[in-house]
Design brief:
By secondary structure, the chain is of the alpha+beta class. It is built from 8 helices and 12 strands.
């Protein structure tokens, strides 16, 4: 009985320990990642503070740092819940083990009392010789032997149970120490969070004093946004017209091929030739869309655009859609200083509208394509270069580049360097990254890019 109890206890304790250990490792790994990211943000923030024009970027950094600090505190709270669960589990196990230990000790005490009362050799011999038969005497000897073994087993069980109690007590004390450490870290991060919020208030106050300069920046960004919108509109319109012409050429070629087949069939005086020619053409339409211009319906209820006149082109769009939320970032470093859509500068009435996301990063950083595609165009925009890449019916735009490394019409793969980041209006390296569909509607890039 006690052996099964001990084995069951070890199995239960081991499973809890493994489960807790895995959770602990995951939580601590996340904490280290958050601490590293906060350290990187602080390092970047130190550089930004050297330039007063970079207050907008400074605000974005402080806000992100506050978000990560709050996430870190949430993670610490999760760790505290894990520790509390372990403490409760240890206390419950110690309670049950101590009860079992008391039971074992009582049973052992009773056996000692019984042994004491029957301790004389005379009683022992009298018990043996009172057997009526030889077999009965043998049984009595076996009984006395098993009784001694039972007492030894009782002692062993008591020792093992005491050891288990000691182990759980040590684990309990260790968890309490760990809890105190986590509580101190939680208190520390809460204090730093308040400092971060004060820093944000100071930045907002600083922005109020720079309202005129920021208003000029927003006005210049609005001009750039309008130019980008018109340029993209022209690019998409031109691409659609080219796609339609290409489709018409394919259909015309197909029509000529069908006519030739019909004529050949008639010359051979084959009454079934027309049907055979039509069947062959239909087969080509269904099986070789890339050659004939047909679209295989890869997705039900999908409205195909002129950019998806072939199966291959449709697949490019669908693959881009399937990677929504998993596209790689256009830069290995940097942070989003202005998010997509309408935004307002805190503490001021100033508002702006970002057609994509503005990424602040070191000047000269490599800017990479986020997915496979074809370079639609490269154009100058206010002294900097802009690259537009088409991915089926979607377009990605990389604006404010100091130089480019691709050519119009070039097929490129995800990760291909398209150019280098130029200096932005704030005085630091910046690019504008956009995702647009064939209707010239801008989409939120952060919903397409993987988490960072």
């Amino acid at each position: 009985m006690i052996k099964k109890l001990v084995i069951g206890f070890f199995a239960f304790a081991f499973s809890l320990t493994v489960k807790a250990q895995e959770t602990k490792e995951d939580i601590q790994k996340k904490q280290q990642e958050l601490l590293q990211e906060i350290a990187d943000l602080n390092s970047t923030l130190t550089q930004i503070k050297k330039n007063k024009k970079q207050s907008l970027g400074q605000l974005a950094l402080v806000q992100r740092k506050i978000e990560k600090r709050q996430e870190l505190i949430t993670n610490i709270n999760k760790d505290l819940r894990r520790i509390n669960d372990n403490i409760y589990s240890n206390q419950v196990q110690i309670y049950h083990l101590e009860k079992e230990l008391d039971t074992l000790k009582n049973q052992y005490a009773k056996s000692l009392v019984f042994a004491y009362k029957n301790r004389s050799n005379y009683d022992y011999l009298n018990f043996l010789f009172s057997a009526t038969t030889f077999n009965d005497a043998i049984k009595r000897v076996a009984y006395l032997k098993s009784y001694r073994q039972y007492r030894e087993t009782q002692v062993n069980n008591i020792v093992k149970t005491q050891q288990l109690v000691e182990q759980q007590t040590i684990a309990l004390n260790s968890n309490k120490i760990e809890k105190n450490s986590s509580l101190k870290e939680q208190s520390k991060q809460l204090t730093v969070l308040e400092d971060d919020r004060k820093e944000k208030d100071q930045v907002v106050k600083q922005l109020k004093g720079q309202e005129k300069d920021i208003a000029i920046q927003i006005k210049e960004k609005e001009k750039t946004r309008q130019k980008l919108r018109l340029a993209l509109q022209a690019v998409i319109r031109r691409e659609i017209e080219a796609a339609k012409r290409k489709e018409q050429e394919r259909l015309a070629k197909l029509k000529v091929e069908e006519a030739k087949k019909k004529k050949l069939a008639q010359q051979q005086n084959n009454p079934d030739a027309d049907d055979n020619a039509n069947a062959t053409a239909k087969t080509q339409l269904n099986n070789n869309g890339a050659a004939t211009g047909a679209v295989t319906p890869l997705k039900t209820n999908r409205i195909y655009s002129p950019f998806e006149s072939t199966t291959e082109e449709a697949n490019v769009s669908i693959n881009f859609e399937n990677n929504r939320g998993r596209l790689s970032w256009p830069a290995d470093q940097g942070y989003v200083s202005t998010h997509f859509g309408v935004y307002q500068v805190p503490g001021t009435p100033l508002k702006g509208n970002m057609p994509g996301i503005e990424i602040s990063l070191p000047t000269g950083s490599n800017i990479k394509a986020v997915a496979d595609g074809v370079v639609s165009t490269i154009f100058d925009l206010g002294g900097s270069q802009t690259v537009v890449v088409r991915h089926g019916k979607y377009f990605t735009t990389y604006s404010n580049l100091s130089s480019t490394y691709v050519e119009k019409g070039q097929e490129i793969k995800a990760g291909k360097v398209v150019g280098k980041a130029a200096v932005g209006l704030s005085g630091e390296g910046q690019i504008i990254f956009m995702v647009t569909n064939d209707k010239n509607v801008n989409l939120d890039p952060e919903r397409w890019l993987k988490s960072k």
